[in-house]
User: What shape does this take?
Amino acid sequence: MPSETEKSTSTPSVKADDAPVDERGQDESDGIALPSQVAGSGTLDRLVDTARNYARAAASDNTLKAYAKDWAHFTRWCRMKGTEPLPPSPEMIGLYLADLATGSSPTPALSVSTIDRRLSGLAWNYAQRGSSLDRKNRHIATVLAGIKRKHARPPVQKEAILVEDILAMVATLPYDLRGLRDRAILLIGYAGGLRRSEIISLDVHKDDTPDSGGWIEIFEKGALLSLNAKTGWREVEIGRGSKDQTCPVHALEQWLHFAKIDFGPVFVGTSRDGNRASETRLNDKHVARLIKRTVLDAGIRAELPEKERLALFSGHSLRSGLASSAEVDERHVQKQLGHASAEMTRRYQRRRDRFRVNLTKAAGL
Assistant: This one.
């Protein structure tokens, strides 16, 4: 019987923008090889493979996939314009950025943040191919500055899932095995202020699997999560709640107990009937789909059309929800979310008192 994981990881249809990526070319572009004057041997060849694996681990899988798509899109654009992507031409890249901003190509105009990300992807790909892309070159920098000046808009923030929302969302879940898992995902993700990739990358113990992004330890007073996050290793403390029905640690214990998970990934797929756990780690897209589905089922923002409601919420809604709902010192929220600055934390706080510090009065006016 096909499992839920098999369904959720099926290959999506390829859009016009997503040209197939040449994996062989990607391997060759890793930039790790023996010097020409050194004779190869079995030991050295194995070290080359090891070094390539470490080089690939320098960025997350999602980032590498995005960069691969950026390169595929740019190389296809070059072919359509009758030019070559190598060696890097600042003039052509400036034209490419202008094309992305105006939407003159078959694809619609892209946002400034997406264009900036595309440029980062090109810089990374050129570096892997032994070339250097100077983003400060006037043909690139001035075009990008003009795009930002003309098209930049304030960032569109996802809606925060507040405490009354998360309670309503978990209340929609059944108490079968799949419901226990999804309840633990929502509550742990919310209380920990976790990214969706951090949620699904957890293992039961340290070094259980090669693709682990961290592990859990459960104590009498709560759970300690050790996470290998975007900003490096950090510990996230999740205390026990006031009652079992809404306690994230209790939800996690229930899932692990009834799913009989004592090794490997914490959050795995289930059989189609929802009564048997598999050994396959969930995809992070499951978290996004779970949030959107339970938002609809709980009737959150029911005054809006369904399409708008779905667009309002994402995995980041859990993080911003914790930042907005936790009535504690801002420093504790910053630590929990793993932010390097208080300013970044404030971007996640949807209900904070923006005028708590009144510099006008403090200046004597």
User: Anything to note?
Assistant: The first strand starts at residue 202 and ends at 203.
